[in-house]
Design brief:
Keywords: Membrane, Transferase, Transmembrane, Transmembrane helix. It is an enzyme of class 2 (transferase). Its EC number is 2.7.8.11. This is CDP-diacylglycerol--inositol 3-phosphatidyltransferase. GO terms for molecular function: CDP-diacylglycerol-inositol 3-phosphatidyltransferase activity. Helix 1 packs across helix 4 and helix 2 crosses helix 3. Helices cover about 75% and strands about 0% of the residues. The protein is elongated and about 80 Å long. The longest helix is centred in the C-terminal third of the chain and has 46 residues. It has a domain of about 90 residues. It has about 130 residues and is an all-alpha fold. It starts with a helix and ends with a helix.
């Protein structure tokens, strides 16, 4: 079965718009959460032990000094909602910042190449 290129183009543009929206929204939400962390100090009291599998809870309870125990019973319950939302949106924000860096590098190279070509054209025109 042969695919219609117009349909593929429309689907690609819709998908890329959605992905772009999610990346931009998560990026902005991350920075809003950073701002709100300074003002919102009340912990959510989120208890994750009841929703974890029994084997993981037993593993966490085996050693009170383990990282897993600290994560389940100390750190997560003391998170505020801006901290939790910021932690969830951080990977997308970091990805977007990497993409921004790559775009900046490519744009800088393109500008340098254009500058070199213009200088060569001016030098050739002078001779």
């Amino acid at each position: 079965m042969r695919e219609n290129p117009k349909v593929c183009t429309v689907l690609y543009s819709l998908l890329s718009r959605r992905v772009l929206f999610v990346f931009c929204a998560a990026n902005e939400l991350f920075f809003v959460c950073l701002y709100l962390m300074d003002f919102y100090k009340r912990p959510m009291g989120l208890q994750v032990a009841p929703i974890l599998p029994d084997a993981l809870v037993q593993l966490a309870n085996a050693d009170k000094n383990s990282l897993l125990f600290q994560l389940v019973y100390v750190w997560i319950p003391h998170l505020t909602w801006p901290q939790l939302l910021g932690a969830l949106t951080f990977p997308i924000c970091a990805g977007k910042q990497i993409i921004n860096g790559v775009q900046f590098w490519k744009a800088a190279k393109a500008l340098c190449d254009m500058d070199v070509m213009e200088r060569r054209a001016r030098r050739a025109h002078r001779k």
